[in-house]
């Protein structure tokens, strides 16, 4: 699996073709969710855009009216940063400056939140156990693939975060 490392002022990783394919698909799905598929009733949208005042519908709607457009644009741009940073050849090196690394971290986080909602994961869920159980039931199921992607995104996020944080400690 790909691990980000610090090289000078950049976070660098060598991606395999299957990893690029998965990241491209995930980022495209996030963009689709936030554009054509944007539905306030979708639990994923609710998680990515939580009510600021859950007990006050009027003020929450008013806050959303003033902030949702900018937040949506930022999330689309972050997913776009992932798409722009991926190798075009299908595999290869990714080099992220600090700003791009931050955008990738936020985009991966959004993708994990969305996937976690779709998989009905909770704070109490142990993903490794869920994956083991899904493998026992049907190793070729969509759930096995989705749990694997969720785990991979967490691993990648942690790797990138360690590269970013490591750089901040050395300054």
Automatic annotation (TrEMBL):
UniProt-listed InterPro entries: AosR
Pfam families for this protein: DUF2017
Protein's UniProt name: DUF2017 domain-containing protein
